[in-house]
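haha ok so turns out i had the wrong file open the whole time. this is the CORRECT one, sorry everyone. sequence first:
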Amino acid sequence: MSDQIRALLVEDNEGDLKLLLAATSEVKDTQIEICHVSRLSDAVSRLTREKFDVLLLDLGLPDANGLASVMRAREAAPSVPIVVLTGLDDETTGIGALRIGAQDYLVKGCFSGAQLVHAIRYARARNEGLAVKPGAAPHELIGFLGAKGGCGVTTLACHAGAELGRLTGGKTLIADFDLVAGVAGFLMKATSQFSVLDAVDMLESLDASSWRTLVSNFGANLDILSAPVTLVGRVLPRPERLAQLLKFARSNYRWTVVDLGRGLSDFSMCLLDHLDRSFIVTTPDVPALARTRQVVESLLVSSYPRERIHLVVNRLTQQPQLTVKDMEKVLELPVESILPDEPNDLATCHLQGKLAPANSVLGEAFTRFAARLAGIEEPKTKPRRFSRLGKRAERPSAGKSATAHPPAEPAASDSGCEQREAGAGEQLHALLQGPPGGLGSGHNGHNGSALRQLSHELNGARAELQQFAQLASHDLREPARLIAGYVQLLAQHSKGRLDAEGADLMASALEAVDQMQGRIDGLTEYARVTTSGAEFQPTSCENELAAVISGLRQSIEASGAVITHESLPVIQADAAQIRKVLHNLISNALTYRSGDPPRVHVRAEPDGGGWVFAVRDNGIGLDPQHADRIFQLFQRLHTCTECPGTGVGLAVAKRIVDRHGGRIWVESEPGKGATFRFTIPAQGAASPGQLSGLKGAQ
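then structure:
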């Protein structure tokens, strides 16, 4: 006997309604009755009078918009599971809906009838198992991001996850998303041979059985999902795929603790949007605090909510040169938790690959930190020599932010101590503001005021540009998605009845939609170069090139290409963007190849303290008169039939190089290949000989 589902669909877009009805008609083993309304008020009325198995809810309705729709629906019918339907750029909103009571979300145009049925069944099961329980605790995602390397972010994430499971009895997952240098698996003695990348590869078929093979289990309440041991031969996943993995974790764990590694990147920036709370871990030294301020500023410029940023100062000594107030003054955010500097306990953890003993200074500090995260009473411990953690901070109530207010500052023993700390704070502030006479400090107040105003205007312009790109991307994708859906439906209904010309016209229509969507994606990527770029940090160009070659492995093998390179430097740059430049240039060489197998050579030469990079190929080349045009957005020298592409790759590469203060150009002749060159000015660049040192630090 087939399963029966009665669903109430709240959707005001006639096109989306037709596509969803067409998707459900494909399902053979389940009978789905779709009851449709266009307004939330009509849905609320029917929910109070009729019985439904699920509510399919669009968030952009004439009489309600956004997450308020979910809240109103939950109030009207708490027992009815909700599946939210979002646009292609609304996954963040979908995640927000899960936090306030929805059971699942689907991206419009990206699911089949079978996937819809699976989501409905899953939503019903989750609603029966979790959401309807009075007072059930929400499932939380908590992320830890290191301001720079060496801040102890992995140590804190592992201890926090282990203690959350022990103190609350809630099922907990520690997920190591530091794909390059993750060591959570080592510290936790993980036994599974699989990693985050394997979990991403299995996303479409993940279930309880397959998940158990991916994680390492530590008793009833703790699982570990490790980072990969190496990226050699592996393709880096899209950030959106990692976000989907977090969605799976949220559904199965009371607590999910995510190690995001160090510094902002495309991966961490995307994942931060899906977390309930984000902790930036820093140490009380000038380089770390400078990085912390850059991370915070980047998050705020990207419209990340200030209230979701929590600062943790790790490794605070018994007699710090900088007070918490000094650090708060510079970072312009409260320091919500501090942890002591205990090198002996820490060395034991790292050397033996295990957690700090529960009765050690570090162990007790981690326990208190986890208790504050969970919103429960902190365990009573004997007073320790570290006075800063001796005074308990005010405990938040359950459900609220579980960080601690900064402990009270220790009383100064004499005026000299006060003067020393005040002087250190002033020096720190001056160092982070910039050198005397530089841009950070004008010769008079007028200059400083003008610079602050200019900075404010630039930040506002960046935010507006990002908002424009997101809105344009969403609004343009919507009709393109509907057109593609309609043409596919028409092709299905006309199967066997169209002549060759009709079939060709349909194929051309779908191809045109694909091109439109590709250009929209390109426009969004182009805008985000400046609005979502990460901070500059030491970047191994050899490591980034290796990642590019790994990601292009299929194209390289299919074309018989050979990629070679000379010793490449370590530079001060946005690592993800440098990887993107190399990817676009090498991908360009593979696309515009001649009859011979592609040969691509990458090298770099010092230039006045900076570097000049060259990517040389043996492809078809181009006329020098087009040397500037190819770096303009959507400008192509060939038709899509001759060579696939959107005309975005080289424009994005130029925008990235511009952001780094360099320039890019091409030297070429028709039939003689091309050499693309770009410069990265001296910004603390390191020589190739320093590469081994960087690898060791990682």
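Residues 129-136, 383-422, 434-445, 684-698 have pLDDT under 50 and may be disordered.
again sry for the mixup
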